[in-house]
Every structure is written in C-alpha cells, then in structure tokens.
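STRUCTURE:
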C-alpha cells in the first residue's frame, strides 16, 4: 500500500476516533442529549467532521480519492438518530458540491445512502433479530458499502469500471469492518457511560438506604452465613450499650442471645441459611451489655450473590420492649381482675345460696309454725271440745267413756308433738347422747307389734307383721332410741298405707352389722323426694299432711339417731309401689340375761297392821289434785310437801313414811338436792321421781342421781299404782 493511503487512512481513523470521543463527551454525558438544540449542535459537529474527512482523503488511484464519510454518516445515523444525521448529511453535501469534480454526484449519493441506511438501521435493526451486536454492525457496514459500490454508477462512464475494480476490495475488507469497529467503540462507550450512571445511582441509593438503616428507632443488622455481624446500625448500639467495635464481626448468637432461647433462634437462622422454611417474621429477646433485655420483633430478608447463593440475612427489628412491658402489666392486671371477678362471682354464688337458704329457712319456719299451729290446735280442739261436752251434757256412760278416750288420746298426741320438737332441738344443740343397755330384739319387736297394731284405724285393712327370725338376738344398744326409730318408721308405714301390709324385722348383715327394716304397700315416695324427707319439717305432700297429720320431724329424728349409733338410714321406694325403710347399726351380741333391777333388791315386806304413808312432793296445785284423786280411791295415805326442803323436813320427822314420790322441778329446793339430803337421813327409803322431763336421757340422769325409779308426767294411773304396789307392798 502506498504511503499516502496509509497516512490518509490513519488521518481518517484519527478523525473517527475524535468523533467517538465527541460521542461520549458531547452526546452521552449530556444531561439531556435529546433536546433539539443539542441535536442541532451534534448535527453541525458531525457535519464538520464529515467535511474534515472529505478534506483529508487519500488517493487510491490517480483521480479517485477516498474518505471515510460513509462510515461516519452510517454510524451517526445509527447512534445519533435523524436530526443530527440529516444536518450532518446536509453540511457534507454542501461541502461536496463546493469541492466539485468528477466524483461529485457519486460523493453526494454516498452521503445520502450511508446516512439514510444508518438512520434506518438505527431505527429498525431490531426487526432483523440479530442477537450478536458485532454481526449487526458488520452487516450495517456491508449494506452501506455495497450501496456505496452501487453509487459508483454516478461516475462518468470511463471511470466507473476502473473505480469499481479499485475500491471493491478495500470497501469490503476495510470499510465494512471499520464501520463495525467504530460502532462497537460507540456501543462500549454507551455501555460504559450507562454503567457509570447506574453505579452512581446505585451508590446514591446505597448511601440513602444505609442512612435510613443507620438512623431511626429500628434495629438493623446484616449477618453472614455464620451469623457474624457484618453490619449494625447505631440504634442497636444505643439499645444494647455496646460499641461498634465490640459488635462488628462478632457472632450474633454469642453476643445477644441468651442460652434458654438460643436453640430456637439457631434453628430459625439455620433454616434461613439453608433456603428452607424461611421465617420472615419472629420475635425474640436480646440481651445488652449490662444485661438489659429488649424484646425485638424481626423482619428478615435473605441476601443473595450474583450466583443466587444465600450469603447472609438482613434483619430489621422493631423494639417492642415497652409495648411488651405494658402488655404484661395489662395481662397481670387482667389476671388480677379475673381473679377478683371470680372471687366476686363465688361470693355472689355464696350470697345467692345463703339467700336461698335464708328464704328456705324462712319458708320452713313459716311452714313449721303453720304446722305447729295446726298440729297443736287439732288435738287441743278435741280436748277442749270434748271436755266441754263432758261438762255440759247429760251423758250415757258409754258416751262418757268414748269422749274421755278422745281427750286422753288427743292429750297423748299433743305430748308426742312436744316431745318431737324438744328432741329435735336437743339433737341440734348436741345434747343427745347414747345410753346403751341389753335389749332382746324379739321381745322389743313383739312389744312394738302389740302396741302399734292397736293404732291402725279400723277403716284401714292393713296387716301388721313382725317377721320374726328363728334365732333371737340380745344386743347392747340404746333401747329408747332404737324403739323410737322403729315406732317412727312403723307409724309412718301405717299412716301412708291405705290397705295391704306393713312388715318389719331385722337380720344380721355382714360381720357385726344388723339391718332393721320396715316395709309397706303404701303410697310410696318419688325418688326426687328421697333425700328431702329426711330433712326436718319436710314432707312430700304439703297438702296431704293435713289429711294424715304428721309434723315432718319423725324421719329427721330417726336419721339423727341412726347416725349417732353409727349406721345409715336408707329408703327404697317408688310411687304406688310402697316403701322400704331400713337402717344398719353395728352391734355386739350379748349373752341373754334375766335382768334384775335395783328395785327387786329393795322390795321388803311391810309389817302387817301398820298403815304406810307416802310422801307426795308436788308444787303444782292441779297435779296435786290429780294425785289426791288417785290416792283417795286407792286408800293410800300420804303427806303433801310443796318443795324439796319441806320434803326433807317431813322425812326427818315422820319415820312412818315408806316411800317418796318426788317432783324434780320445784321452788326453794329441787328434787335432786332434796334426794341427796333424804339419802343422808334415810338411806333405804325408796324415792321415786315423778317428772315432766320425759325425754331420752332424762331417765338416765334421774336414775344416776340415785332415785329408785321414775315415772313421767302425764301420769297414768295404772302405771303409778303398779309402781306403788311394787315398792310399798
Ligand atoms: P311426718 O310427721 O310428716 O310423717 P316424717 O319425717 O316421719 O314426718 O316423714 C316425712 C315425710 O316422708 C312424710 O310427710 C311423708 O310424706 C313421707 N313418708 C315417710 N314415711 C313414708 C312411707 N312409709 N310411705 C310414704 N311416705 C312416707
């Protein structure tokens, strides 16, 4: 190659490189290269470069000069776009016209074709879908320079062929790759500048982000895959009291996490690093330098490198310590209130129960009073009514007898009511105790059968039966109470049975247990009442009680007695099918003995002919009159004393007194004290207590005091005479 070609080429390359620099400096870096003004300036500049190229050509063969305006304009079209390129083309064309010469037309054609192809290429080259940018630019160069070859047809006829021959190879071999190289240069510049912009933007973004992370009241940390702290913000340091040096590149778990939760936090961290079960949100406590505990709610983001491998985790944490404290306080308060609430509820329930009890007891009291009134008025009415009849009417002996019977029975009924009431209050006050003695059960039951069978009203076809066992039993038991229980149960059975049978008996059950039972074919009791009827003053049918009488105390007393004896009172019953009441008591079998009391020892034969006196100690005038009546008819002689002291004095003065009938409750001196003194004067004188203390326990108390015997008021004439006979005959 000739020297001039090389120089021309080098000049052209230099100019094109200048163009490339211009592209970077004046176009790419411009804040707004797309403004019209900028486009015009660029167009003028490129046009000037084209002119410069045209004035630094090289001569291929004499008469044919070359420059690289085709490359310049094609690349300008592609990279700068329409307006700058059109302006440049215009300037180049003017310059070419001014240069004149044979190649003018071709020169203009080359300017037009290469600029136009460049512009169109820039706009539409994507349509060709060429991925490789080298190939894309190479193709541009080829098309532009094939067109340039075509432009040789504008040369005058004789130079056309020579020119083609001369330029075909350089165009293809130098200009085409030259276009590609210039294009690549510009592309790289574009990318570099874009990269730089991007980096600057990224830096700016990073700067802002880290400003956000560093400040504020959000804890932010970045941990690597081994949980070493690679970043932490000031807030964490403020919160924990560590310096940056103490924190950075130390292990998060070792520095901030307590042992008791470390396993859990380790697990979450490992899962985050292993790409599985990534826990984005969780709360935990961290411990500061001086032991202060902060409660942090974390939001975690996994960090990746460009190969998409996890390289760590960024954690943003909100300090919830204060909120947690308030929450805990609220919870505690809530719990306390809950407990208080519960206490109030319980109190309320207790109050409701107490109120119900009070109302119930009020109701029972009223019912009791109504019952009491009814129960007392009924026999009272009979007593008053019939005594009135006895007084005012002329009566036949049989009528008289039957009226007296009514009065008598009613009196007893009244007495039993009073006994029940007093006994119940004694039980409740805890005054009742057991007084055991030997009892032959068959004898007791026979006696009960005899005394109760006569109480069955004539209108009721009821068979009363004692289911007598073959083997009798003699046991040690409180006879009075056992008798009372059985009387209550059997009387109830008779009362609540219209027809059929009432059977009672006893049998051993297990070791050392006896079961007593009373069975009837009466009205029965619904199961819902089974518990209730054992309460005092409770009856199944409040209406019915008026019809049948009864006070609602019998079962309550019986139950209390059974329990005192160590047993249980049971009921099996259903309406219409009758009832079976039974109770157990522990027992010890005793040898059957013939009981000989003190009384028999005392019996002494009176001397014949002497008239015996008895001393009647009685403060009540009416009662005294009653005794007087009895003694008068029976020819007993007596001396009357109105109190204990008088009785002692009379005993002292009258050795002919053979027996004392002593009242207990008296003015001046009571019966017990009088007895003591009489015993000192006349130790052998039989003294019999006569008293209105008729309840269980009274008898024992009296006998214990040293009385020889005992008779209760109201006094039955036969019983009294029997006693007098026993001690005086
Ligand atoms: P009351 O003096 O009313 O008979 P109790 O305490 O002896 O008092 O009995 C309480 C209630 O139990 C009775 O009013 C009656 O309703 C019921 N009752 C007791 N024994 C029987 C029975 N053998 N059959 C049916 N009901 C009974």
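SEQUENCE:
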């Amino acid at each position: 190659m000739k020297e001039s070609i090389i120089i021309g080429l080098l000049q052209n390359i230099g100019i094109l490189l200048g163009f490339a620099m211009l592209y970077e400096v004046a176009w790419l870096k411009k804040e707004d290269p797309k403004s019209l003004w900028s486009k015009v300036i660029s167009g003028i500049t490129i046009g000037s470069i084209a002119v410069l190229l045209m004035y630094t050509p090289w001569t291929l063969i004499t008469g044919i000069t070359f420059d690289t305006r085709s490359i310049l304009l094609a690349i300008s079209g592609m990279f700068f776009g329409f307006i700058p390129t059109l302006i440049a083309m215009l300037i180049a064309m003017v310059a070419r016209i001014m240069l004149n010469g044979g190649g003018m037309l071709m020169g203009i054609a080359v300017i037009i074709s290469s600029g136009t192809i460049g512009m169109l290429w820039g706009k539409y080259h994507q349509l060709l879908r060429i991925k490789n940018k080298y190939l894309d630019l190479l193709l541009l160069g080829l098309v532009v320079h094939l067109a340039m070859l075509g432009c040789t047809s504008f040369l005058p006829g004789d130079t056309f062929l020579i020119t083609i021959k001369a330029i075909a190879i350089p165009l293809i071999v130098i200009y085409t790759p030259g276009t590609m190289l210039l294009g690549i240069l510009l592309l790289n510049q574009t990318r570099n500048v874009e990269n730089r912009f991007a980096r600057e933007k990224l830096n700016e973004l990073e700067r802002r982000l880290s400003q956000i992370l560093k400040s504020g009241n959000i804890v932010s940390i970045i941990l690597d895959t081994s949980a070493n702290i690679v970043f932490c913000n000031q807030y964490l340091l403020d919160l924990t009291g560590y310096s940056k040096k103490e924190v950075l590149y130390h292990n998060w778990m070792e520095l901030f996490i307590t042992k008791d939760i470390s396993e859990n936090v380790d697990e979450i961290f490992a899962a985050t690093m292993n790409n599985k079960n990534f826990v984005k949100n969780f709360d935990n406590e961290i411990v500061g330098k001086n032991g202060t505990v902060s409660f942090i709610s974390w939001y975690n983001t996994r960090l990746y490198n460009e190969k998409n491998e996890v390289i760590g985790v960024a954690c943003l944490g909100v300090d919830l310590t204060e909120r947690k404290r308030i929450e805990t306080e609220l919870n505690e308060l809530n719990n306390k209130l809950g407990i208080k609430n519960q206490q109030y509820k319980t109190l309320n329930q207790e109050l409701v129960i107490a109120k119900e009890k009070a109302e119930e007891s009020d109701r029972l009291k009223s019912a009791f009073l109504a019952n009491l009134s009814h129960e007392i008025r009924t026999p009272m009415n009979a007593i008053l009514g019939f005594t009135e009849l006895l007084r005012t009417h002329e009566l036949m002996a049989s009528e008289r007898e039957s009226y007296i019977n009514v009065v008598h029975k009613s009196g007893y009924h009244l007495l039993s009511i009073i006994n029940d009431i007093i006994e119940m209050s004694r039980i409740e006050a805890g005054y009742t105790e057991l007084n055991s003695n030997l009892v032959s059960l068959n004898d007791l039951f026979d006696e009960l059968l005899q005394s109760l069978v006569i109480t069955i009203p004539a209108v009721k076809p009821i068979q009363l039966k004692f289911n007598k066992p073959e083997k009798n039993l003699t046991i040690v038991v409180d006879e009075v109470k056992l008798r009372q229980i059985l009387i209550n149960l059997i009387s109830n059975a008779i009362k609540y049975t219209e027809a059929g049978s009432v059977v009672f008996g006893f049998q051993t059950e297990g070791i050392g247990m006896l079961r007593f039972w009373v069975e009837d074919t009466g009205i029965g009791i619904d199961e819902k009442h089974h518990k209730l009827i054992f309460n005092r003053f409770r009856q199944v049918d409040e209406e019915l009680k008026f019809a049948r009488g009864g006070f609602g105390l019998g079962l309550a007393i019986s139950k209390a007695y059974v329990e005192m004896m160590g047993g249980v009172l049971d009921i099996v019953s259903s309406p219409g099918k009758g009832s079976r009441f039974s109770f157990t008591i522990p027992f010890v079998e005793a040898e059957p003995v013939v009981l000989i009391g003190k009384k028999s020892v005392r019996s002494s034969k009176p001397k014949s002919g002497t008239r015996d006196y008895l001393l009647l100690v009685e403060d009540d005038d009416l009662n005294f009159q009653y005794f007087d009546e009895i003694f008068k008819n029976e020819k007993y002689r007596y001396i009357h004393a109105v109190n204990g002291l008088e009785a002692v004095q009379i005993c002292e003065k009258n050795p002919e007194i053979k027996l004392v009938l002593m009242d207990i409750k008296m003015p001046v001196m009571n019966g017990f004290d009088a007895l003591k003194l009489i015993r000192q004067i006349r130790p052998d004188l039989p003294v019999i207590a006569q008293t209105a203390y008729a309840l269980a326990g009274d008898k024992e108390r009296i006998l214990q005091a040293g009385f020889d015997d005992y008779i209760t008021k109201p006094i039955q004439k036969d019983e009294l005479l029997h006693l007098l006979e026993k001690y005086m005959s």
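REMARK: Residues 594-610 have pLDDT under 50 and may be disordered.
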